[in-house]
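step=encode ok
step=design start
structure_in=
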């Protein structure tokens, strides 16, 4: 079994957000650059993660992305089930349908193996994935050279 590219990107984005300070609030473009994925793909994935309650996204000055508490501590197995969908590993009913489907045991065995895969991930969370040695590497990810840095917000008058 291989995870879809979209799920791979979602995990990278969530892991990157998990190691940043709560005040960091990077943009989707900044996170995409840091984890090495195209902005357009990252934007679609961020939208999906937002819909699932894993990522919070705010627009405008002071906006950006952050990992929600549920995103940090929720079950990794549940998240992958949501991202991947829990369908058959093999396409027994695809066109043309497999002629062995009425007598084949493979479909059931693969479904059991798929559930065992997800069950192994159930007790883990995104927070578990970012401990050493991954955490320091994720913190060290920077924008590609040549990309202009995001301007710092200008502080308002004090006093």
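sequence_out=
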């Amino acid at each position: 079994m291989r995870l879809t590219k979209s799920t791979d990107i979602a995990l990278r984005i969530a892991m990157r957000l998990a190691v940043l300070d709560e005040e960091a609030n990077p943009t989707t473009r900044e996170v995409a650059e840091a984890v090495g994925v195209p902005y357009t793909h990252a934007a679609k994935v961020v939208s999906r993660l937002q819909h699932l309650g894993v990522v919070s996204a705010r627009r405008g000055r002071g906006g950006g992305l952050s990992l929600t508490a549920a995103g940090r501590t929720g079950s990794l197995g549940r998240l992958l089930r949501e991202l991947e969908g829990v369908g058959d590993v093999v396409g027994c009913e695809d066109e043309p349908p497999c002629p062995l489907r009425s007598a084949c045991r493979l479909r059931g065995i693969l479904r059991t193996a798929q559930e065992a895969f997800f069950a192994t991930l159930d007790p883990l969370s995104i927070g578990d994935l970012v401990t050493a040695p991954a955490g320091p590497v994720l913190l060290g990810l920077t924008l590609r050279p040549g990309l202009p840095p995001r301007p710092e917000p200008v502080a308002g008058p004090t006093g």
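step=design ok
step=annotate ok -> Residues 106-121 form the longest helix (16 residues).
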